[in-house]
Automatic annotation (TrEMBL):
<feature type="domain" description="Plastid lipid-associated protein/fibrillin conserved">
    <location>
        <begin position="13"/>
        <end position="165"/>
    </location>
</feature>
<dbReference type="GO" id="GO:0009536">
    <property type="term" value="C:plastid"/>
</dbReference>
<protein>
    <recommendedName>
        <fullName>Plastid lipid-associated protein/fibrillin conserved domain-containing protein</fullName>
    </recommendedName>
</protein>
<dbReference type="InterPro" id="IPR039633">
    <property type="entry name" value="PAP"/>
</dbReference>
<dbReference type="InterPro" id="IPR006843">
    <property type="entry name" value="PAP/fibrillin_dom"/>
</dbReference>
<keyword id="KW-0809">Transit peptide</keyword>
<dbReference type="Pfam" id="PF04755">
    <property type="entry name" value="PAP_fibrillin"/>
</dbReference>
<keyword id="KW-0934">Plastid</keyword>
Length: 174
């Protein structure tokens, strides 16, 4: 954003501490790309699981309303075509609803599932992503910036949630 320490296009990585997902699904990356020339923002979450990886993103336009506040209007959501993995890697155990489930007896079944997954991968790999247009006034948000420097942005969403973003390549993130 002009005047806010961002170049024309900056990529930030979010620090997320309370994203609740099943144990078999892992968040690989959460990022936000801000383009101050086109006044657009893309939020993206990349997931991986034992069978596939995919990402979900939202595309939005923003307007600077004050030196410390922007209004975001979401245009579309995008679900990328899942990329099926070559082999299934499952933990020996995982927890579901407070119960430990032992997966080791299922190892023999995995080879036939891998063959079926390879056929599915061939079928869906050429498909375009699923785009969902967001054409409602309810898809707007205000984002007041609490702190901003060359490496870090701290904002508060209109639901009072705190958003901490680190610029890609920041020395603040290990």
């Amino acid at each position: 954003m002009r005047g806010h320490g961002c170049a024309s296009s900056e990529r930030f990585t979010a620090l997320i501490t309370q994203l609740q997902l099943p144990e078999l699904v892992k968040v690989e990356e959460i990022s936000q790309t801000i383009d101050s020339e086109t006044f657009t923002v893309q939020n993206c979450i990349k997931f991986s699981g034992p069978l596939a990886t995919t990402s979900i993103s939202t595309n939005a336009k923003f307007e600077i309303r004050s030196p410390k506040c922007v209004q975001i209007k979401f245009d579309e959501g995008v679900i990328e075509t899942p990329q099926v993995t070559d082999s299934i890697v499952l933990p020996k155990m995982f927890e579901l609803f407070g119960q430990n489930i032992d997966l080791s007896p299922l190892k023999g079944i995995f080879s036939s599932i891998e063959n079926a997954a390879a056929l599915v991968a061939k079928t869906i790999s050429g498909q375009p992503p699923l785009k969902i247009l967001i054409g409602t006034n309810n898809a707007e948000s205000w984002l007041p910036t609490t702190y901003l420097d060359e490496e870090l942005m701290i904002s508060r969403g209109d639901g009072s949630n705190i958003i901490v973003l680190f610029k890609e390549g920041s020395t603040l993130v290990n």
